[in-house]
Amino acid sequence: MIFIIIPTMKFTFGIITNNNIQNVNLIIDSIEKQRIPEYEVIVVGSDNINRNHTISVPFDETTFTGWITKKKNIITRMAKYENIVYTHDYIILDDIWYDGMLTYGDNFDIIINKIYNSNGTRFRDWLLNIDFIRGLQFKVHDNLKTPILQCPYIWIKNENYIADTLQIPDDTYTIFLNYDDDGEKWQKYMYVSGSFFICKKHVMEKYPLNELLLHNQGEDVEWSQRVKTEFKIKFNSHSSVSLLKYKSLSKSLCV
């Protein structure tokens, strides 16, 4: 008798929201379509989500508006599976997302999927950060005890300046890599968009999001700078996700 072993992966899906119940349910619909044998969904920012395999966690939005770093760190602490998907409440999985993850396999620490904007163009997926390219490094003020709304960081120069070598125009802010680029030579310049990414729990426990930073304060840039000193960022072209709304691409934080 021949036994066929069907590969599986276990996932925690962490969704952060400001009580956007409609969108969260659309995301969970897209997760359920995958038919993943073992998974859980942790929604932080609403206590009104009643779905299978789902934990709904309320969050006080009045403490600091846009405290998404704390929300994602809550997901990390609560997650029971090693593979954690972090997503904002406007991104859904495409129908064969899970099959694509099985095709790629479990050999990653941090991994990016294809991300499509609502108009079908590429969003922030496999890309470099223009500030890193310009030889800048992100430093959070050491004297901060709680998040502040004014600029909580400074930029410092380092020796890695390759914008001129790559002949990147001054008005360029988003540098996409080709999907067939393995990214090996670009690791020091890479940026993981906080909108959607997948990371191992042990990596996030060692490198949590910096809770001194709020939404639109470059929290994902600062995290990317720290985590990629130890862990490689990889890309899986077999899986993709899509935005439920149109979002413009970010500009440099230094502009």
Topology, element by element:
Layout: E1 11-16, H1 21-32, E2 39-44, E3 54-57, H2 68-78, E4 83-88, E5 91-93, H3 97-104, E6 110-116, E7 127-129, H4 130-133, E8 136-140, E9 153-157, E10 174-176, E11 196-200, H5 201-206, H6 219-227, E12 233-243
Parallel strand pairs: 1-2, 1-4, 2-3, 6-12
Antiparallel strand pairs: 4-11, 5-12, 6-11, 7-10, 8-9
Question: Could you write a compact summary of the structure shown?
Answer:
This protein is 20% helix and 25% strand. It is of the alpha/beta class.
Superfamily (CATH H level) name: Spore Coat Polysaccharide Biosynthesis Protein SpsA, Chain A
Helix content: 10-25%
Structural class: alpha/beta
- Average predicted local confidence, pLDDT: 93
Based on DSSP secondary structure assignment, what is the total number of beta strands? 12
Q: Which blocks of ≥5 consecutive residues have pLDDT under 50?
A: none
Structural domain tally:
1
| CATH architecture heading | Alpha-Beta Complex
Shape category: globular
What about the largest sheet?
8 strands, mixed
**Can you tell me the CATH topology?**
Spore Coat Polysaccharide Biosynthesis Protein SpsA, Chain A
Strand order of the largest sheet: 3-2-1-4-11-6-12-5
Keywords:
25% strand; 8-stranded mixed sheet; single chain; 12 strands; Spore Coat Polysaccharide Biosynthesis Protein SpsA, Chain A; 6 helices; alpha/beta
